[in-house]
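Fig. S4 source data, part A: sequence.
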Amino acid sequence: MATNDVVFHPSEITQESVEAALKNDKGSDARLVSFTVQECTKKGDNYATFVARVNVKFSSGKVFNTTSYIVKYNPNRFKLLENFTYISFQKEQVFYQQLVHLIQSQLQEIDQIPLKVPKCFYTSQEENREVIFLEDLQPRGFRMFDRKKGMDVGHTKLVLEELARLHAASYVLKSRIPDLAEKCPILKLDYFNYGDNAAQTIQGVYAKHVDMVQGMLNTIGGYEVAENWLARNKTRGLEIMENQLQRVSPFDVLCHGDCWINNVLFRYEDNVPVEVMLLDFQLCRQASLATDLSFLLHTSLEGHVRKTNLETFLDIYFSTFFGVTEAGKTAMPFSRQELRQEYRNRLEYGLLMSLFVNILILCGGEINGDDPEGYSDSMKDMLNEVSKSSLLHSRFLSVFDEMIENKVIV
């Protein structure tokens, strides 16, 4: 081995876990020959866990072949929110172990295509061996969209349709399982109740973001109304979040919880997006479907795309939701107008999430979980230069413009 070669092999990814995933994927006759691990986590790609690609050589009978898996591991990566990220890791395990099977069975029963999510081949909750082995979608042509660009109508349509199918399938499922959160209690854990110090920790993170955003707006000028709103609500971040996430009929469904441009993959034909995969169900919860919509539209689109096409986007979502409920012989629980009103009711949630996500986009994803305050000096330095960013208005200030226009910020 050359002196500059470095073997990358996280202790969480063991031969036993690779063998288990392989057999679940390829069958009991599959025999592991060897495997290597390739680091996948890059700055800005993932904040709750590390991600690796495991390249596998295996035999089946006399035939030798290769395959690969995407593995999520080390749920304690982000030290500031260690308890929260660990709970989030467990949520994703529950999603793949239980929830996705319920959703897929419901869709199959009503002759709908399966939900577009990667297959899961193995999970472990053993201490210091926590892993989730997922289908590697890269060989099928799926890839990330550049989060700095913001999605256009074609990309957004695919994501909205898939969110609608997830939400609607969980709604149809209520006839058999009235409350998924009772069946899977971990769905009840969230920002504000995941542990003894949840409120204090999350409120501290929110307040730090508010300080930085206020400083940015002050430097830019012309956003005194937004600055004043942030100052008044600096200590109310957790309260607002909890209120926005309250379950309300008839919009109460299984939500993705973290659906933004970083957590979807697209497949293209002739450079046109034709298929999407939803990833990273670490924040799945029972909540209003509009929280997913507001989160997606305020973190993943440029302002002019969101504003110009909002009615179209909500119509796409409504039509897809209706198609699933109709196939399931279930009455549509809300009208188009009621959906629009519920979306407006959850604008504040989109605003709060944009304070976190859009800052990370502006700063190139720089964040350091080992920093006691959760932010590296380099991130703060970049914030000082934010007025030079081409993304400043299209992704960041446009959210404040919209919230002022809709009287969310007054």
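Fig. S4 source data, part B ends here. Residues 141-405 form a domain with the Aminoglycoside 3'-phosphotransferase; Chain: A, domain 2 fold (CATH 3.90.1200).
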